[in-house]
Amino acid sequence: PILKMKYLLTFIALFLTISLSAQPSPKERAKKIANDMTQVLDLDNKERKAIYRIQFDRFNESNEIKKQYATQPEVRKEKLNKLGSKVYNQLKDLLGPERLKKWRESKKHK
After folding, report:
1. Could you give the C-alpha distances from 53 to 34, 47, 48, in angstroms and in order?
2. What is the largest CA-CA distance in the chain?
């Protein structure tokens, strides 16, 4: 029984490690979005870098909010919604409403 328990705990620990490491980092996620937006919207290098920075900051802030308010779902939801609005406004300021609309439309068709 003790040996079985050790195997079970080892398996659980291994599973958790694999599932946590399978999630892309904020850097990887931001890079993917910046690259996808560059293709869809034909962004220049300066715009691509700005998109990357906005998305990188978004994912880091989101992770912090999720950690900090893990036991407060209502507060977490409110903070994440505020972050979403902030990111939307940053993207709209950078790209303009027409290109942002084009981006959103392209995501619907994926």
Report:
1. 9, 10, 9
2. 64
Looking at per-residue pLDDT, the higher value among 73 and 10 belongs to 73
Q: What is the pLDDT of residue 23?
A: 74
* 65 residue type, one letter: I
26-60 residue pLDDT tens: 999 999 999 999 999 999 999 999 999 999 999 99
CB atoms within 10 A of CB 25: 13
**Burial annotation 53-88 (CB, 10 A radius, 16+ → b, else e):** ebbbbbbebbeebeeebeeeeeebeebeeebeeebe
DSSP 58-98: HHHHHHHHHHHTTT-HHHHHHHHHHHHHHHHHHHHHHH-HH
Nearest-angstrom CA–CA distance, 52 and 59? 11
Count CB-CB contacts under 10 A for residue 43. 19
